[in-house]
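The protein record reproduced below.
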Amino acid sequence: MPIVFANPLGFLALLGIPAILLIHLLQRQSQKFPISTLFMLDAIDRQSLKGRKLDRLRNSVTLWLQLLSVLVLTWLLIQPRWTRENQVQQIVIVIDSSASMEPFKENAAEQLKTELSRIPGQLTTVVYTLMESHEQGDRLYRGGSISEMTDSLTEWSPANSAHSPEASLRVGRSIAGTAGNLIFLTDHLEDQLPFGASLLSVGEPISNVGFAGLRIEPTEDSDEKLSWQATVRNYSDEPQTREWFLSIGQQRTETRNMSLKARETRTLSGKFPEGIDRATLNMAPDDFARDDLLYMVAPEIKPVYIATNVAPDASEMVRTIIESLDNAPLLRPPAESSESVPPDLLIATYNPLKPRPLPPVGIVLLDQQYAPKEFFQGTIVAANHPFVQNLNWQGLIAKSTASVPLKGYDVPLLWQGDRTLVLLRQSSEVNQLIFNFDVGQSNAQRLPSFVIMINRFVNQLRYDKVALERNNLELNQQIQVAVKTGDDALDILIDSSGATQTVPWNLAGMLRAPLDPGFFAIAQGDIPLLDASANFADTREADFSAAASRSDLNVLPKKIMEKQSVSDPMWQAWTILVLLILLLSWYLLNPPSKEVSVSHPTT
């Protein structure tokens, strides 16, 4: 089995060998013994007391005992350990995939290589796993090469919003096992990490100024033009100056300077030019470039074309309802217009005493014309349904008119006593919101709940309509688009920054905005579905005031050595041996004195 030394500095104890030899080479200082006569002294060789101080090395038991004690003590100090056979050490690195890691990519690779290179390669077989911290994160690398693992970070692009790494750390611990090591690589400090993870932080405070918000709305003086308002924030504790300009295609405005105080937030504003639906705000780049560009699209919701079939006395009420809807133009009758656009919704009045077919997709308002004087009695109760959620109907006053014949699949939304006041009729053939009371003979028009319910029904139709919509989204935001379904449905095409991606139509519910800022478009065949922009909007990730560096990996090599090797089982015996050698050497250097009795002659 290979042997390693847990404390290589223990070899310094071998310096005791030349020290002992030097001591034994030095001359002993002569000692004086007072005696009465000279004939009792043995003849000894005369030694020089003023010449050289080094004497020849004399072979003695104490010399060899002292040298042996130095060797045994060195063996104990270097802490020899024998590696186990066929051992694999798992090291899992969970790297923070939030956007704030982007300025520290190179530093992260260098620090990771430096820290992991301290692990002794001859100790065990090491398998490295590098994975992202968010729940849908990819595994960036798995293998035994530190260089290949750090090289994989060159193509890595952190772009997620702030998130908790707990789920990924749990997965990392399951990969590493109880004997493996788990590392969390980030740009800020963490007080306590779960699952026994060690922290490697590579961040540092940087000065960042960027766009923090966007608002687009119609101008007050004209409904045809849109105005935009962009929020700019200085995240640093020092004043900053930046240049900015607005670009539209190949054209751009003059560059302007903007000075911001520490932590100041300022708003830029302007208008979309006539016939322009895309523009870009550009700011001078800094260390964090993700929020230096703001892509703007003139928003436009999908239109819902409305036709009417109402009694003359209800036309004013229906006109008021249509005016409360967003982008819901009223189609003129075919005799008055050459438009060939089919209506998406039909608003109709219905007299139960004169039954006729109801529109397949529509809003039905009861109009009995001659309503009785009696009113509905009882408590008004609303169903647990999104169309009536958080709406107050307690002020509704309606007359007791005839009812629409109910069907088995009708969903009551509102009722009073035994009477269903509002119902939803949906099947594969129809989609109808039916107000089962005479709206014109009630106070429903003065209740906000009445208009809100109609808006919710129209918005559901708008959501299900396959048509173009324009919007401004955040990075990685979930996208909701309606697509054509069925066996002959085409795939979805996503065009982002010139790169095209194809997605099956049945995965439309899983679409997300790009991870990088820019314009993008979604289409299904020749049908455009979405024209949008994706912008960075997580202000927490743009603030680098709390970024810091710290490494808790200095104990990692020692932990791996202890887990993958066994210590000398005879260290206690070696310790006792050192003590015995020292005792024996002391005894030989200080033997017990022998008393000699001398008899004196008597006189």
